[in-house]
Write a structure and sequence with these properties.
The protein has 315 residues and is α/β, with parallel strands linked by helices. It has a single domain, classed as P-loop containing nucleotide triphosphate hydrolases (Rossmann fold), CATH 3.40.50. Strand 1 and strand 2 form a beta hairpin. Helix 7 crosses helix 8. The longest helix is centred in the first third of the chain and has 15 residues. The protein is globular. Bound molecules: adenosine-3'-5'-diphosphate (A3P). The site of adenosine-3'-5'-diphosphate has 21 residues, from helix 3, helix 7 and helix 14. This is Sulfotransferase. Belongs to the sulfotransferase 1 family. It comes from Mikania micrantha.
Length: 315
Amino acid sequence: ERANMALVFDRYRAKLTMLPKEKGWITENLYMYQGFWHQSSRRISVETLMALQDTFKAHPTDIYLATLPKSGTTWLKALVFALVNRNQYTYNCLSTHPLLVSNPHNCLPFIETEIFRNTPTYVNGHSPRLFATHIPYTSLPRSILDSGCRLVYLCRNPKDVLVSMFHFANKLRDKSRGLMTIAEAFDLFSKGVMPTGPYWDHVKGYHKAENVFFLTYEDLKKDTVNNVKRLAKFVGHPFTEEEEADGAVQGIIRLCSFESLREVNKHGYLRDDIPNDAFFREGKVGDWTNHLTDEMSRILDEITEEKFYGLDISC
Ligand code: A3P
């Protein structure tokens, strides 16, 4: 895998010098490519994006889960994996379900990380193939857009994304860089600078697109049952009446709950540098009130109001 990464990165790194640069949250820098900020030299990076744009082949039956980082990607991955595979892995056979032994990121990969694998993962043998991505809509590899496959977008309140990203970055960034302050995180976020940001442009890109099932973290929290049922239908695995009577919906919701996943992932590492527990912090709506000043909140509300003016986006 390391050799593959090196090849991908070498090929595209030369182009980096031409791109506008900003201070990164986790990595040293972020680079502006096709209107969005991207990390470099990590699996989810601008070099990977360029490689995917050149090579990625979608299948018409694929399902893509698109999100900005810290919008609930891990939760959505768990839900869709559990829904689509519920005949193979029954939600009530608790000892053997992959989500009870493995991080959701291992069960359902990002296309950005898949490119580095020498050997095909389980997804190649399955239809539909399930993938996640943080790539902005307008930068998606052409074949995803052309193949007419299903896309799910999960969006989350910008202030909660900012706060979640702030904590995540402080867990993952190189110790030599020291910790970020919330003021620094706020400055970057409000300028649109975060991995695959600007936040507002990322959300708008998917909101405008036609073939996208658009969901918010807040709605998923508030009415989990109905939204999970809608999601099941969209991914082509609607619940039967018998399943519903049997408690299948609740079973899957429990399996993918914050408490359950946090418990499974309290030890170990996703990869060398990312502890499994980094993806499970509070799992709440509105935690921003504990971190942002009134002034920060007001400024972000103003930006959001202006950027989302006339759009029906409520998160
Ligand atoms: P907080 O930092 O606000 O707690 P992502 O998966 O896109 O990286 O997003 C991580 C955020 O989703 C974190 O938010 C995390 O706690 C929350 N999260 C993870 N698993 C969840 C689950 N099963 N249900 C609800 N929220 C979850």
